[in-house]
Structures are given as C-alpha cells and as structure tokens.
Amino acid sequence: MESAPSERPSTSVEDYVKVIYDLQERGSGPVTISAMAERLSVSNSSVSGMLRKLGDLGLVDHRRYGSVRLTETGTKAALAVLRRHRLLETYLVEALGYSWDEVHDEAEELEHAVSDKFVERIAAHLGDPVADPHGDPIPTRDGRVVNRATGLLSDAEAGAVGTIVRVNDSDPELLRYLAEQDIGIGMRVEVVERQPYGGSLIVRIGAGDGAEERSLGLVAAEALWIAPD
C-alpha cells in the first residue's frame, strides 16, 4: 500500500479538526473547550494547549474564553479526514459485512493509516457513495458536502412526519438498540405524542399496515435526524 502523504496533518491534528467540525455541524451552539474535552476524553488544559498549536497552524480561530471555529484551511483538513473515515465505514459495512455499530472505532484507526490513493479506490469500488451507513454525508474529492434539510427527532412536534436520514454514530450500544428495534435509515417516522417534561416520544415507525407505534426515549430521539416529508 502506498504510504500516506507527508503533507498530511498529524494524527492528533486530524482528530481535533474532525471533532471541531462535527461539533459545529451537529451542535446547537458555539464549540467550547469543555465540549471538545468531553468528546476527546482529555482535560480542558490539553484542549487549550492543542488549540494554541492549531491556531499557529492557521487551522482554528479561537480567542481565550471564546468559542472555537475552524478556518477555511481547517475546514478543508477536517473534510479530508471525514471523507476517509466515512468511506472506510461504508466499505467495512458493504464489502466486509460489519454492522453499523462496529465500524466507527475501526475507521478511527484506519483513517490515519490509509493513503489517499487507497481511499479513492474504495470510493470508485463503491460507486462514489454520498452518505455512509449512518447517513452522514461523505465529502466529495474537492471538499464539498451535500447537505439536506434535517432536524432532530427529539425536536419534532406531535404530528410531524419524516424519514430517518441520519443517526449519530458515537454510541455503539445505542446503535445496537436501534437495530434491535428495527429502526434505521430510510424509515418513515411520525411523532404521535410527546410525553411531558422531557420524557419519551410515542412514534409510529413504518408506513401503511406495517406501521408500528413505539415508545422512544429521549436519548434515542436525540440521535435520530429526520428529513420532513
């Protein structure tokens, strides 16, 4: 296998810019040091030190006690590693028979080791997919992301109807639970009722005579993204 290009950022730099991008994309507010520390399982001081390095490299814009944002260069670096990660996840599922709860950690290891040539061979073999097994968009070769209008199921009001198009992949146990409940990408979902005080949602999964009502906890509902019908 061809070795990774020397100009590629270090593993730690790639991990940080990817997490910042993910928090910017999925989060409901500014990216903070504490949120990054929680995602990376490191201390706040470690994040602060790394942000200074990323700032020197021109990858982030961060002022002390302020929020963190990727620069244009940082966004480009994040999209490159996300492309590798999501294509690897797709290959592991489609070609090697992995389940969707197994691929995240595997791809985390592989994304820093494989060459760009190898990743593009995977993309060609898979027919240039636009989304990974969790519905996350796969950035194009030139760093574009095709997004669609989506919202969290947990934010949907009673009567809302949509299609599940994306699932947060950070918790393998939750992914296994959803698979056991036969809840996945492409399924129609209708919010029947919201329990008071931040409780569970009563949802109808599926369409027509095969639709089933389920009680879905808030943690699961916060992991599902739907596109409105």
From TrEMBL:
Q: Which InterPro entries match?
A: DtxR_MntR_Metal-Reg (IPR050536), Fe-transptr_FeoA-like (IPR007167), Fe_dep_repressor (IPR001367), Fe_dep_repressor_sf (IPR036421), FeoA_core_dom (IPR038157), HTH_DTXR (IPR022687), Iron_dep_repressor (IPR022689), Transcriptional_repressor_C (IPR008988)
* Pfam families reported for this sequence: Fe_dep_repr_C, Fe_dep_repress, FeoA
Recite the UniProt keywords alphabetically. Activator, Cytoplasm, DNA-binding, Iron, Manganese, Repressor, Transcription, Transcription regulation
The cellular location(s) given in this protein's UniProt record come to:
Cytoplasm
Asked whether the keyword Repressor is assigned, the reply is: yes
Per the annotation, which location comes first and is thus the protein's main one? cytoplasm
Residue ranges constituting the HTH dtxR-type domain according to the UniProt record: 1-71
Question: Which SMART domains would you find in this protein's record?
Answer: FeoA, HTH_DTXR
Family that this chain belongs to: Belongs to the DtxR/MntR family.
For this protein, the record's PANTHER family field holds:
IRON (METAL) DEPENDENT REPRESSOR, DTXR FAMILY (PTHR33238), TRANSCRIPTIONAL REGULATOR MNTR (PTHR33238:SF11)
Assembly mode: Homodimer.
- Write the protein's name: Manganese transport regulator
